């Protein structure tokens, strides 16, 4: 049964009390133990001011402020302060069996938590050893939070949202981390569009709240096993929020490091920027997890993979996003499901270019691709093509890449890892968000679609110093000409491979087994159709042609 809404007067008073407590603790931040911790963690004055940090010693100054309001209202005031979550009752040291009032937060660095409007709702506290406990083992929880109150609901709060919402709006992006210190560390590293989930697993309420400020979210997790488990859980949670205009990616930090630790290293901000560029879509996280848990090795495992991934895609509301990733999944298992290798994704074009109509799905009676050999482009050539995709500004590259029939790359994906990465990225770019002016505001922000395979390719080509130097010395016009030549070469190869595939189907099953579009494609490709005893067949010269 739903709880009745809290009394507005109580809500207002709770906000005032939490703000009062936060300001009392801010005044106590000059305490030696607090200053020692700030120095040890290299927390700057700018961060202290931005996030209104404070310190709660063991003297319960907030409870004393409560008492000072007057003895006649003492009991009522104590009850209200307890409702606001700033004081509590604890066992008395001097009188066993008796409880006494005290501040909830004692010997802790205080992180006030405000809602998006700036109202104080609650706080988190990081335990700092009191002078009397130096040298002893800490037994208290490292972090505690305000309990559930009329104004503080942990699963609905985002730490830093009020302080950093201006940066989130101006950049159009938000980074979601796990803890208070992560937000502060990134802020000190110049990354201000950051919020934290207050120590909870990502919730629907938090996602809904953050999407009110941006449609581009980067989830940041540690690279260890718990971090990857949290990322997988978050990825599952995000599925039903993936509208075509929403982008949610996952960034994995180096193992053993959290964002604050990373920012303390000399090149921390630069490393974080590179990791952000290499962040992968949440659907990629799920796809890779499914592959690792149940490798696709045969027709049965391919069917199981498609079923499991398809179940997740059903939760995605964005039709274009759903279709693009379904095409990627089908291309992934095409080696074991060749009937799917002939499917054409619904968005074969890119950017603002006109897209062609989808090709009719071929019959499932085609159980395997024909054994027709074609001369493939070298893997090094395709790796450099992937590198060009990410290194050339998108406003220059988009019209050129849009000429490539991405749907036809499926015939090379089974044999070329680089082609597979290229096709996956290009398909991912076929969403409305990338047809807007946002796409031209920075150098291929679509790097967000990189997979681990694409990252490896970029790093490999980056080490080819001579090639990179030549690229850097080329004029913009020459770069366009070079890219056009690359795309033309890939286009011709993709068309040859598709032509060979369809010709092989016709050889085996007869010309009538092809769709109208496939028959037209063969004729336009120069394949002659001969009549033998009233049946259409492929001329002998096709079997000998070098495709």
Automatic annotation (TrEMBL):
Superkingdom per UniProt: Bacteria
Ranges for domain Toprim: 172-254
Pfam families, sorted: DNAG_N (PF08275), Toprim_4 (PF13662)
Lineage start: Bacteria, Pseudomonadati, Pseudomonadota, Acidithiobacillia, Acidithiobacillales
Protein name per the record: Toprim domain-containing protein
């Amino acid at each position: 049964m739903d709880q009745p809404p809290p009394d507005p007067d109580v809500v207002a008073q709770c906000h005032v009390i939490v703000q009062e407590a936060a300001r009392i603790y801010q005044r106590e931040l000059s305490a030696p133990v607090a200053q020692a911790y700030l120095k040890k963690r290299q927390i700057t004055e700018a961060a202290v001011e931005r996030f209104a940090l404070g310190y709660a010693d063991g003297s319960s100054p907030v409870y004393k402020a409560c008492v000072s309001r007057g003895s006649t209202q003492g009991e009522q005031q104590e009850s209200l302060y307890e409702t606001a979550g700033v004081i509590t009752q604890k066992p008395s040291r001097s009188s066993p069996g008796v409880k006494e009032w005290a501040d909830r937060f004692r010997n802790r660095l205080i992180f006030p938590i405000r809602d998006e409007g700036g109202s104080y709702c609650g706080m988190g506290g990081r335990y700092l050893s009191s002078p009397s406990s130096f040298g002893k083992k800490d037994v208290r929880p490292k972090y505690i939070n305000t309990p559930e109150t009329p104004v503080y609901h942990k699963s609905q709060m985002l730490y830093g949202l009020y302080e950093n919402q201006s940066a989130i709006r101006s950049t159009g992006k938000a980074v979601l981390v796990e803890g208070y210190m992560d937000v502060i560390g990134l802020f000190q590293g110049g990354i201000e569009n950051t919020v934290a989930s207050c120590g909870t697993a990502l919730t629907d309420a938090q996602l809904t709240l953050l999407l009110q400020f941006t449609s581009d979210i980067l989830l940041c997790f540690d690279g260890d096993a718990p971090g990857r488990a949290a990322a997988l859980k978050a990825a599952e949670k995000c599925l039903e929020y993936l509208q075509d205009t929403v982008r949610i990616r996952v960034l994995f930090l180096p193992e053993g490091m959290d964002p604050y630790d990373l920012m303390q290293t000399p090149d921390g901000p630069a490393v974080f920027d590179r990791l952000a560029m290499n962040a992968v879509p949440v659907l990629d996280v799920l796809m890779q997890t499914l592959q690792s848990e149940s490798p696709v090795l045969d027709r049965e495992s391919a069917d199981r993979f498609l079923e499991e991934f398809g179940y997740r895609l059903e939760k995605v509301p964005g039709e274009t996003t759903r279709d693009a990733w379904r095409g990627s999944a089908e291309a992934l298992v095409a080696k074991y499901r060749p009937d799917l290798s002939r499917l054409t994704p619904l968005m074969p074009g890119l950017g603002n270019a006109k897209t062609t109509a989808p090709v009719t799905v071929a019959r499932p009676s085609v159980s395997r691709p024909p054994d027709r050999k074609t001369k493939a482009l070298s893997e090094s050539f395709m790796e450099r093509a992937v590198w060009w995709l990410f290194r050339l500004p998108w406003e220059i590259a988009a019209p050129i890449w849009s000429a490539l029939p991405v749907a036809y790359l499926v015939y090379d994906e089974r044999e070329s890892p680089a082609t597979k990465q290229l096709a996956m990225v290009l398909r991912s770019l076929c969403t409305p968000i990338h047809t807007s002016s946002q796409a031209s505001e920075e150098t291929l922000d679509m790097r967000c679609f990189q997979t681990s395979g694409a990252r490896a390719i970029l790093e490999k080509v980056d080490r080819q110093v001579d090639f990179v130097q030549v690229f850097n010395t080329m004029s913009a016009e020459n770069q366009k000409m070079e890219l056009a030549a690359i795309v033309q070469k890939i286009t011709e190869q993709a068309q040859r491979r598709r032509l060979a595939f369809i010709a092989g189907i016709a050889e085996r099953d007869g010309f009538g087994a092809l769709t109208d579009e496939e028959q037209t494609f063969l004729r336009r490709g120069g394949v002659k159709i001969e009549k033998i005893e009233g049946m259409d067949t492929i001329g002998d010269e096709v079997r000998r042609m070098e495709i």
